[in-house]
Amino acid sequence: MNIFKKIIQFLREVKQELGKVSWSTREELIGSTFVIIVITSLMAIFIGLIDLVLSKILSILFI
After folding, report:
1. What CA–CA distance (Å, rounded) separates 22 from 16?
2. What is the per-residue pLDDT across 49-59, written as a single tens digit (0 to 9) for each?
């Protein structure tokens, strides 16, 4: 029975600590998500272009 008291105490402490967390607003979350999507897209385009250029160079050299 002692284990259940410890579990309940732990869950109470977790709830108390989560109340102290500074949560992002919806606008901040949407803005951050947009920035991540844009940066990821730009990096994918950049890596794709580098891959295309290097593959063309290698095909010219070895064919």
Report:
1. 13
2. 999 999 999 99
